[in-house]
Amino acid sequence: MGYDAPPMSTPSDTLPLIHARGLTKRFGEFTAVDAIDFDVAPGESFGFLGPNGAGKTSTMRMVACVSPVTAGTLRILDLDPNADGPRIRGRLGVVPQQDTLDTELSVKDNLVIYGRYFGLSRAEAARRGDELLEFAQLTERANDKVEPLSGGMKRRLTIARALINEPSILLLDEPTTGLDPQARHLLWERLYRLKQRGVTLVLTTHYMDEAEQLCDRLVVMDKARIVAEGSPRELIERYSSREVTELRFPVGVQETLNGELEGLGDRIEHLPDRVLVYSDDGEAVAAAAHQRGLEPETVLVRRSSLEDVFLRLTGRSLVD
Amino acid sequence: MAMLDAPIGDGGSLAPLTGPSVPRQSAWDAAKAAYEHMWLLYRRTWRGSIFGMFAQPVLFLVAMGIGLGAYVNQSASAALGGVPYIVWLAPALLVSTVMQGAAFEGTFPVLGGFRWTKRYHAMYATPLTPDSIAFGQIAWTATRSTLVGAIFCLVIIAFGAAGSPGIVLAVPVGTLTGLAFAAPIAAFMTTQRDTTAFNSIWRFGITPLFLFSGTFFPISQLPEAIRWIAWLFPLWHGVDLARALSLGTVGEEPVVMLLHLVILVAFAVTGIVAMFVMYRRELAK
């Protein structure tokens, strides 16, 4: 497929920053990414949602121009990663899944040396470094070593480092995995700020709340393929109902249910520890269950989330 | 964590992050940046490191050159070309010491770059290429080797153990010998996930070579059956060449000396090419 192929659902007319058609990555016999198509428009926040091993990181590494494309078309900033890798990388900011900070250097030196990699003068790298430390709320730690920083601080420093070259696209691979809730929210706030300033964000996550918070548009990946694409709201509307009623029965009871739940809501999912009933009115479902004489231990009515979308599409949960 | 409780600031005054603001840079600039990183790391420990670079030759020259030398000089002076043991030993010890430091630079920093701090992966996310990353690493090894050799040379001169002004040439020979070890070892270390191989390299490679490559006694003292082993590895070639340069005896065996040089260059160049290949393979997966 050539570069003239019509864009899938790019929200604007401008040339996509990232354009992938039939993008494939194989490691020997193993296919990590299986002929996926996607476009990312300037200023967009684009997400890859999927469980571990779905092919998200392999896709990100190809986009970051550090992993050769096995087959298909990939163009970034209208350039070919095979021919122009260093040039493209010069305009990307990369936040890898595992921190790659130099723990033997100071916080500030980590930023300055990174600026040097992008060909900035020492003075310019130091100037941008100071600004970014402020952005990352690490100014007071500028001369400290990296090692004793908390996980959240290291992540923020990694993001600051990825911004030293004022990138056109910021790639974030599982940006908040392993952080406590407070640190995650602070990080999301910082990323949202970047998004507002027009930075194009591309991120992978297996957290649905992260995808809902940060992504304008996302693709759901499972087993090396894209199984759905749209905004979080669109996906929920298309693949789930408005509300979900979660019924949790005493141990052993759920297995004995036989048809008692039939007709409750639009659709029913049996999870190992609970039953999910999808409908437009969760409270009505809960009342109906009660009328039928069912006695769940707990009843929870909530809005549908991307987790439900994923369950519907793959029959499995996101986080195992 | 006070920082997380603090109200969220305005995020500084960053320019809008849109346009391409990255200067184009040559492969040379990229390699220089990778090299600069190593200097930045060295800056943290340079005092202790320089002290060690002075202390080691002093200790060895006192113990081996003066202590052991007092006995050797009584009987073996003819076998050593008629010079005092310390003069015969010094240039060889310089090369052997540089070799050990360089071999080390080919192990832990390389393993760390790929596996621990993942410094190389961070570098590869920028315009740097695997080639420039490998070049930065080996160029730093050459710099450090030259520093070790130069300081060793100063100590030799201070001890009055220089056979001739040619001792100065032992420094570049040391650096070349260092690269002949460090580069192939670094290329090999790209395949390793932990330090298991490190111990083997030292126990079965570096230490025996250090002892049996003509540094402390001529290889003619070795049983004839194993003497050829010295020829296989770069250390003896560096030791013999540096010694001849220092004692001013290069003219006695010009062909052998040239051969030493060719073999050292061959090891270093092959090793560096292997580094480029292996760094590419390991980073661009």
List keywords for this structure.
heterodimer, A: 320 residues, alpha/beta, 6-stranded mixed sheet, 4-stranded antiparallel sheet, 11 helices, globular, disordered N terminus, B: 285 residues, mainly alpha, 12 helices, 0% strand
Spatial separation of the terminal alpha carbons of chain A: 36 Å
- What does the main sheet of chain A amount to? 6 strands, mixed
Structural class of chain B: mainly alpha
Question: How do the helices and strands follow one another from N- to C-terminus of chain B?
Answer: HHHHHHHHHHHH
The chain-level mean pLDDT of chain B equals 88
Q: What oligomeric arrangement do these chains adopt?
A: heterodimer
Query: What gross morphology of chain A would you assign?
Result: globular
Low-pLDDT segments of chain A: 1-12
Global outline of chain B: elongated
Helix-strand topology string of chain A: EEEHEHEHHHEHEHEEHEHEEHEH
Distance between the termini of chain B: 39 Å
Give the integer mean of the pLDDT values of chain A. Answer: 89
Query: Count of helices of chain B?
Result: 12
**Strand fraction band of chain A?**
25-35%
Give the proportion of residues in helices of chain B.
over 70%
